[in-house]
Here is the input.
Amino acid sequence: MATTLEAEATRRAANNAALITEMTASDHTENPSDYELTIVNDAERGRWIAVLGAEGIGELTYRYVGGRVVLLKAWVDHSYRNHGVASELVAYALDEITRMGKKITIICPVVGTFISQHPEFADLIDARHPGSGASPAMPEAAPRDDESEIAEFEKDIH
Here is the structure.
């Protein structure tokens, strides 16, 4: 089993590195991607999906935790990399989170890289729980009381 976990970690690191390289090497600010994508929020499975025609070509997975959205990992099919798909997918998700009035915790380094290139989204990062993928690292926030934590959790339930 350790070999499988190591292989998965290696595969995930390679995927993240490829998507981050794509984001930093190309400029898709005018046209977010080279394709006419539809981004769908599959809330039941906790993911935003980039759809081209009838095919899902990328996704950004998430979970709700304590009143915020935890962005877990991004993936784009190898055939569609280097065309701005990851950037368009992340931008769409962050715009939707902004409309929802939520904060984010970043586990996915692809999202952290995107936000470092688009500082207009930096205010979405939860100061207390920025996440391991936040870039640049956020200063540690002052501790909050249990009532605040409970109130944030109740936001997710309703």
In short: Residues 93 and 99 are 10 Å apart (CA to CA). The chain is about 40% helix and 20% strand. Residues 138-142 have pLDDT under 50 and may be disordered. The helical segments are 2-25, 85-100, 109-117, 146-157.
